[in-house]
Design goal:
This protein has about 150 residues and is of the alpha/beta class. Helix content is about 40%, strand content about 15%. A three-stranded parallel β-sheet has the order 3-4-5, with no helix packed on it. Helix 4 links the parallel strand 3 and strand 4. The protein starts with 5 loop residues before the first helix and ends with a strand. The relative contact order is 0.14.
């Protein structure tokens, strides 16, 4: 029987959090205009004049066509530790879209509710061009997932 120890769970969480940091850095650093460009993406007027996103390889998920690389938004709300500013995470989500990501994952228990709010706000201007996956069936009591 394979038993996952608390130590292994913590190591996995640290590994995943590190992966988020590396992925976020790669997405943000590939911008031609650097961090100023990413911050500008968070303004409502910037979404009106947005360029076509880059194209990534595509995959089929049933009847859906999505980018081969998706963005999981759980770590953005500090689930694996750390705190992140809303404006920075919205800029990151928009930068991911501009980099060709069309598949985003969130759930009401991420925060709770915070991740879905940020993803919704970030992707509102391009909602008809992306796929947002979510999970349900969890409970939230007194602000905590159950």
């Amino acid at each position: 029987m394979n038993t996952i120890t608390r130590e292994n769970q913590l190591a996995r969480r640290r590994f995943l959090a590190g992966g988020l940091a590396v992925g976020a850095a790669a997405l943000l650093s590939s911008s031609l205009h650097g961090m100023a460009h990413a911050a500008a993406l968070s303004s409502p007027s910037a979404t009106k004049n947005r360029q076509q996103p880059r194209s990534l390889p595509q995959r089929r998920l049933g009847s859906l066509q999505v980018s081969a690389i998706g963005l999981g938004c759980l770590p953005m709300v500090g689930y694996y530790g750390g705190t992140y500013a809303k404006k920075d995470m919205i800029a990151l989500i928009r930068r991911a879209y501009d980099s060709g990501v069309t598949f985003f994952d969130t759930a009401e228990v991420y925060g709770p509710y915070t991740s879905e709010e940020w993803v919704g706000e970030a992707l509102a201007p391009v909602r008809d061009k992306v796929i947002i996956a979510t999970k349900f069936g969890f409970g939230v009591e007194e602000g905590r997932p159950t």
